[in-house]
Prior knowledge:
- By secondary structure, this protein is of the alpha+beta class.
- It folds into two domains: 2-103, no CATH class; 107-160, CRO Repressor.
- It has eight helices and four strands, in the order H-H-H-H-H-E-E-H-H-E-E-H.
- It has helices at 2-10, 16-37, 47-65, 71-93, 96-103, 117-123, 127-136, 165-190, and strands spanning 107-111, 114-115, 145-150, 156-160.
- It has a four-stranded antiparallel sheet.
- Helix 2 crosses helix 4 (71-93).
Amino acid sequence: METKVLHDMFWLGVPVIEKMLRPVVVYLFLILSLRLAGKRELAQLNPFDLVVLLTISNTVQNAIIGEDNSVTGGLIGAATLLVVNHAVVRFLYGHERLEQLVEGAPDTLIDGGEIKMDRLKKELITEGELLSAAHKQGFATLAEIDSAVIEPGGTIVFRAKKPPSDELRHDRVMEKLEQLAAELAALRAAR
Length: 191
């Protein structure tokens, strides 16, 4: 009985080379598919995107493990995925153009305070989703933003508008007046 359990746990039902090729094929397919799906799939997930990604992982599981449910087969598949990912990342590190081809380029969503609706449409991001991302970075409204860029990894980077110099000067003058008023009040209280 014990021998059968150990045999079932560790005996490979398919050749080792197949156990190694399956995860490589699925890995390459998923990298290409996620690249074609766009940047939002990587970081700006809504509930629908999350369900799709979870379902994909379950769907490709059988393609990776095949007919083999052994521990050994699972370890070989997982190790293969880790090695392939490490190799791809190391290779892309030294090849910027190829990395940009695989990962994509940044895309400007807001420029000079103007929302680029065509870019939002291309990235499949609604104004509401953009506002939600802005809220997470401390902005109350999109009107406060000078530029927003979605990076290849899906992160949106916001830059605030700089207040006009008149506003800055006004704020400084008001601050000085408040300081003078406080000092005057302190002098009156001292008398």
